[in-house]
Amino acid sequence: MTSFSSIAARLEEQAIELPSWAFGNSGTRFKVFGTPGTPRTPEEKIADAAQVNKYTALSPTVALHIPWDKVDDYTALRTFANDHGVDLGTVNSNTFQDDDYKFGSLTHVDPTIRQKAIDHHFECIDVMDQTGSRDLKIWLADGSNYPGQADIRGRQDRLADSLQKIYDCLGDEQRMVLEYKFFEPAFYHMDVPDWGTSYAQVAALGERALVCLDTGHHAPGTNIEFIVMQLLRLGKLGSFDFNSRFYADDDLIVGAADPFQLFRILYEVVRGGGYGADSGVAFMLDQCHNVEDKVPGQMRSVLNVQEMTARALLVDSDALTAAQDAGDVLGANGILMDAFYTDVRADLAAWRESRGLPADPMAAYAASGYQQKIAEERVGGVQAGWGA
Amino acid sequence: MTSFSSIAARLEEQAIELPSWAFGNSGTRFKVFGTPGTPRTPEEKIADAAQVNKYTALSPTVALHIPWDKVDDYTALRTFANDHGVDLGTVNSNTFQDDDYKFGSLTHVDPTIRQKAIDHHFECIDVMDQTGSRDLKIWLADGSNYPGQADIRGRQDRLADSLQKIYDCLGDEQRMVLEYKFFEPAFYHMDVPDWGTSYAQVAALGERALVCLDTGHHAPGTNIEFIVMQLLRLGKLGSFDFNSRFYADDDLIVGAADPFQLFRILYEVVRGGGYGADSGVAFMLDQCHNVEDKVPGQMRSVLNVQEMTARALLVDSDALTAAQDAGDVLGANGILMDAFYTDVRADLAAWRESRGLPADPMAAYAASGYQQKIAEERVGGVQAGWGA
Amino acid sequence: MTSFSSIAARLEEQAIELPSWAFGNSGTRFKVFGTPGTPRTPEEKIADAAQVNKYTALSPTVALHIPWDKVDDYTALRTFANDHGVDLGTVNSNTFQDDDYKFGSLTHVDPTIRQKAIDHHFECIDVMDQTGSRDLKIWLADGSNYPGQADIRGRQDRLADSLQKIYDCLGDEQRMVLEYKFFEPAFYHMDVPDWGTSYAQVAALGERALVCLDTGHHAPGTNIEFIVMQLLRLGKLGSFDFNSRFYADDDLIVGAADPFQLFRILYEVVRGGGYGADSGVAFMLDQCHNVEDKVPGQMRSVLNVQEMTARALLVDSDALTAAQDAGDVLGANGILMDAFYTDVRADLAAWRESRGLPADPMAAYAASGYQQKIAEERVGGVQAGWGA
Amino acid sequence: MTSFSSIAARLEEQAIELPSWAFGNSGTRFKVFGTPGTPRTPEEKIADAAQVNKYTALSPTVALHIPWDKVDDYTALRTFANDHGVDLGTVNSNTFQDDDYKFGSLTHVDPTIRQKAIDHHFECIDVMDQTGSRDLKIWLADGSNYPGQADIRGRQDRLADSLQKIYDCLGDEQRMVLEYKFFEPAFYHMDVPDWGTSYAQVAALGERALVCLDTGHHAPGTNIEFIVMQLLRLGKLGSFDFNSRFYADDDLIVGAADPFQLFRILYEVVRGGGYGADSGVAFMLDQCHNVEDKVPGQMRSVLNVQEMTARALLVDSDALTAAQDAGDVLGANGILMDAFYTDVRADLAAWRESRGLPADPMAAYAASGYQQKIAEERVGGVQAGWGA
Questions:
Q1: Which of A308, B99, B219, D69 could form a disulfide with D64 if both were Cys (CB 3.0 to 4.6 A apart)?
Q2: How confident is the model at residue B385 (pLDDT cuts 50, 70, 90)?
Q3: Which NCBIfam families match (chains A, B, C, D) (predicted)?
């Protein structure tokens, strides 16, 4: 197997964007439990996100959600972020929390509401111009709950038209990534339910339109690493939303439900050229810490991605190819499993220390007193986002 | 096939309880859309529920949810209901919207919180004593999101203990029904995830403890009519929560997603002795009308159940048995399908008119002006329940 | 709602191809149960298929499977078919029953085996030239059972290369349809697991390469009518393999498991321009009659498709569009359901009689004595296919 | 975390029964690929199974399948096994490969066929008396493919009656374990589809009737370790059939698809008292090595179970309980994951060597030349079982 020292340099390339909204309270339709210290402003979210990067050096950017993270002065927000050691990243649009969007946004049958949704994306592009963000991420809640409720073909055509208008407005260095989701919040049909639909839509737009793969947005049993491979092969994998799930879009900590699946996904990322700064593939988390603390929840997540990336890098590709070519089923599987079963934690701790980071970021954060501090200081105010 | 006239009398026996909370706004974790005319008090919910019964004569009772439907004087509430032509039915407890229950209620590791949850059920039994309700329905959100988070065995033992304490407090004419759910709001384990667990728990309590089957609370592909058959066979089917789903616990209108499945379920209910006043099986709806109007949504639902019940009653049992015994696969299937494919709507319309009901309840309600009236009158106030 | 008389003419356009192999014995890995009268030759299969068409006028063509239906003289076979009132249709290749294909066929790492599989398709095209068939259908069992066993990216590239070679060999009036399948016989990855992959592969080939949609080849919960809509929109829906399932690729009689789903699929076919001789969409059955008789099993299937097509044609499109545009969720759903709940069986029986067909094809076939005749005559010999 | 040395002694207790049929060829309904060296007799299967035990000391017994392993002299067979260092174990009945069982065996509507199936179990008990086996394992293929085909309630009652007759025939030291399966080979309903049904049936029989849990026989997303916990709690977990799956009953090598799930299952086994000779829980494999070599496939499997058992034993239970009681979600999860992520392979290799076993059993077997030897010697003959 490949040695840890030989992959150490490649680990330097890893960057996992954090979503600002992960630091706010989230929950289910049944209940959102509150947590002391929840951020009340975009700045407080960025400050929390910066903590994750401070102890791990894995998350140099923070994604924004508009309008949850709307501010008067984005230049100031960016300066604030930079002062905390991070930068602003992907801008996420939101067309699912306005009453007008009850029956759709970019796909709505009413041109007025469609235009409102398109205009919102123009606003997001304005924000991107100010924040220096590269990616505009679009996730649509659009869909229907009952057969017959909607003309699913008409909606697809209107979606193409709306996306074209937004795409045409992007700057030359800007990209659009279109996320797909199997179901929820719509329960009969989603307008972008699968990678095939997202791919067909972005392929019609141009080379700066790409697919966003959220690891929790598939039907039960779906082989996600196959989709990763296929999108990389087609040159259309734009970004990841990482999380994990046992059932539906559970939005658990990435790697928590099925660490082996995360390993397989990262293995396909690495060998398909999707890893590293030049790859054009953005790594991001998108999780809901319903019952666990937010900052350590995010920290655990980036560490999980790092640990599995290290294992994926450890795979002895030459030996694997030889076994595959020889039809040695057990041998080839064994070579892959060797890397997965290797405990990289001690090596990673040493690697962290060599870079001036704490060996155990979770412990270091816990010892820092930050959690207690925000719990005391952040009293009053209302969370921005997730129902705000 | 059996003739409609021969089953008309049996249709008189049908009664489908409506949940008070179906008339309030519901939604997903992403957004709850508001509707003009949403009830602000238990009385307004009961008034809305009474509309469904007025036009269909199918829903003589309304289930309460405590504390959503908490009032000072339950006798007065019952009188109010009776004045509107309905009665109060099942009392549903709620242990999922209090911060104390973040890590469980009847299964919580902390005896203080367990006792609080048990006391809440004692309070529900007090309400039942005043409303004359027979059934206490328990649905638990208890579970965990991450492997290791909870001692799943300890929780099961504590559940047994808590249920025993509640069961012991029931009056001689009162029953407990324990609902199970595959997942949500917990995403790793639910303390009562399947019928087997609910059955094992209630079997340990005694004969007045029964299982509640919610049609949306199963794993993908589960044969629900088999469970209906089995629970009737074991004498443990206490009640139904009807709804439908394409994906998870979508809580759509019953029969909307898979009318044939509803037919098969009702067929097993009928032939297993679960139909009619003497059966001891309570029929109830439990749906979320996220995008459709509430009163007509409930009306559509009880009519769907009635239409499929009529079809189920139409099955020619003798011919079916003969074909089954002969190993005539296509013949037996054809006899069942004959009943399913029969369009009973005209016969049901005539049957309704013969009882002084409108032939088309949906149209009659729409023409009544009730919806406009409540939209105008019910301004201000806050919905009780679902996040209240 | 639209009247039956107004759709009667459109029903004339319906043609559903039968697979020759449906008349042979099939089963599961556990057991294949034998049936008296099972065909021993391609001619006997065609004779059986012709029975279905004789009583229903719905199945004018029979699909062949090579090598299961290999004969010395395809012109003679076609004449035989014509003499029985049917024609030969789609040619299906088979690269899953030869020991060489244990680790793949068109995707195999060994160029010799890949070429063998490509050559087999050339042979199929030769057969098509003789039978006058339009479509070459490719379903690949290629995949792997264990992570690491195969280079899934390399296989995708080799697949593209192999398909190109086959496509280049097609005549100007011939088409290729590429089927996808979620899983089985491979249990970790399939090389063509979803519509997105099939679409991406055929889009790279040219306009006479299209997708084949088998209704049983999806993940649990997949909205199949959405895929139908999308492929029609993209101009890439080539053909259907109809069957039904409760769990996996159960290959039950089409419409048996979820008739409402079949209705929804056919509704999207009709309104997306996929219905009728000019549509370019081929309808075919692909089922396994493991426990029921084969000829009546196929007959039941084409009748199910016809009944649901009639219902789909009955949908009042104008009213539906109006309700959809008005955001009338219950109204729009109700308009669709009106058509689904309409019992078209008596109208179809009358329509059949008006065309000189038996009102009840199943009964007419049963009374014909054909089944008894073949059971007596066809003694000895070995079934060709499914293990042959 | 617990140290390896402190758990070494407990690893001695591990015993995983091998199924004789795992050494024969298996496949899918599409194709069974042959392998050189496939056993032609029960003795050859036992000899192969003994190889697994020789290199791992993990599999001291071999399960038989009647009639696949029918011999004239079971005492001689047992002696043969003993001479090869193993003993005979569980006897598995087979009521799915006889034409009479097309529509059921123990549940069949025809009393003659039911009695034939019951008699077959009496024969199995006779075999057990001769082999000294403790457990009679019953897996039923009984079910139906189409709604209406069968009276699912009548079948359940007949099942109870048939099982009672078999149970009554067991010796005082003998047990019955009843396996359940979600679907396949029946595609509408299975007579024993879930743990609840198996539990209800065996609970009615007596204390020596128990449930067999096959890890591949559940609906998608089912939390299997919960069922393990529940059955142990109810005193009804009799045995395991280990394998793994990505989709359905794929019967892959245990631990191959989701090693973390295997770890969680074994953790619940250990802490629920299901581990070790005195537990009364039998561990067995039940897999199909469709594309990989059989002997190393079984060896890989028992090693996977051992590795995950070691990890499960390593969990620091005290620390875990403390974190759980404190509501420390991330802490508790982290303690569990610590054990899972620990690479026990070097410790296990050393432990093996200390017992006179090869450090790397897979390599030792490969070097032994056994595979080549059987490939050369075993020419001709027909495999017994899986279609024989």
A1: D69
A2: low
A3: RhaI_grampos (TIGR02635)
Query: By the CB < 8 Å criterion, does A33 face chain B?
Result: yes
Query: Which residue among D221, D296, D307 places its CB closest to the CB of A246?
Result: D221
Partners of D183 on chain C (C-beta within 8 Å) are: 246-248, 250
User: In 3D, which of A120, A128, A62 has the Cα closest to residue A96?
Assistant: A120
Q: CB distance D147–B200 less than 8 Å?
A: no
pLDDT at C2: 85
Confidence label for D168 from pLDDT (cuts 50, 70 and 90): very high
* Rounded-to-integer distance, Cα A384 and Cα A23, Å: 10
Quote the minimal CA–CA distance from A313 to chain B in Å.
Answer: 27
Coil vs helix vs strand at B38: coil
Average pLDDT in chain B: 96
**pLDDT over 60 (residue B56):** yes
Which portions of chain C are predicted below pLDDT 50?
387-388
Percent of chain A with pLDDT over 70: 99
Show residues of chain D in contact with C245, CB under 8 Å: 187
Which residues contact residue A280 at a Cβ distance below 8 angstroms, ignoring those fewer than 6 apart? Answer: A238
CA dihedral for B308, B309, B311, B315, sign (positive or negative)? positive
Q: Give the closest-approach CA distance of C357 to chain D in angstroms.
A: 28
Domains in chain C, ordered, with CATH?
Answer: 12-315 (3.20.20.150)
Does residue D290 sit at the C interface (CB-CB below 8 Å)? yes
Contacts of C38 in chain D (CB under 8 A): none
Residue A41 sits at the chain C interface (C-beta within 8 Å): no
Q: Please give the helix or strand (H or E) that residue A269 lies within, else none.
A: helix A259-271
pLDDT at residue D387, as a whole number: 45
User: Residue C156 is inside which H or E element, if any?
Assistant: helix C152-169
Establish if D327 touches chain B: CB-CB under 8 angstroms.
yes
Contact A268 C152 (CB under 8 A): yes
Whether the CB of C345 is below 8 Å from some CB of chain B: the reply is yes
First-to-last C-alpha distance (Å) of chain B:
51
pTM above 0.90, yes or no: yes
Interface A:D, Cβ pairs < 8 A:
52
**What ipTM was predicted for this assembly?**
0.97
Neighbours of A, requiring at least 3 CB pairs below 8 Å, are B, C, D
Q: B239: helix, coil or strand? A: strand
pLDDT higher than 50, residue B388: no
Q: Which two tokens stand for residue D345?
A: 């392979």
- Give yes or no for D34 touching C (CB within 8 A): yes
Instruction: State the pLDDT at residue C388.
Output: 38
- Give the CA count within 13 Å in the CB-facing half-sphere of A123: 18
